[in-house]
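Appendix B. One record, verbatim.
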Amino acid sequence: MKFRRLRAATSSLVAHVCLIAWPASFLSASAESVWTLNQGDGTVTQVDIRNKSTRNVALNTPGHGGDIKAYDGLVWTTMPMTPLSLIDARTAKLLCQWQGPGGDSLNVGAGAIWLTDYHAGTVARIAIEDALEDCRRPGENRLHNER
């Protein structure tokens, strides 16, 4: 799969980057990188905007569905049965994952992660600080959410 960079004023091709993982079904951008959630092999790919280098992060979450959001130096993903994974955007290291039901789409803003569960028909609001605190206590995975 090729990732193409276009000049907005002329729609002309400036550069392209080949991604190893396929399919890269969802993407999110930060000031420095574009991040793709790769359903085929359960990875996330970081494309550095400045030098076009790529780094892959193994999540072990292949399958259909999911979502990805880059926000405030962190990258959040959701996939069925792995409702949240957290990546440090600076180092491209997986910090933690939460296992269990859920994992459909997400958004991040207003101090919270907004996580949908298609099968349960719910939207959960999880305070970012609560998720980060849970991440500091590996193995407990107790997400506090307000439904």
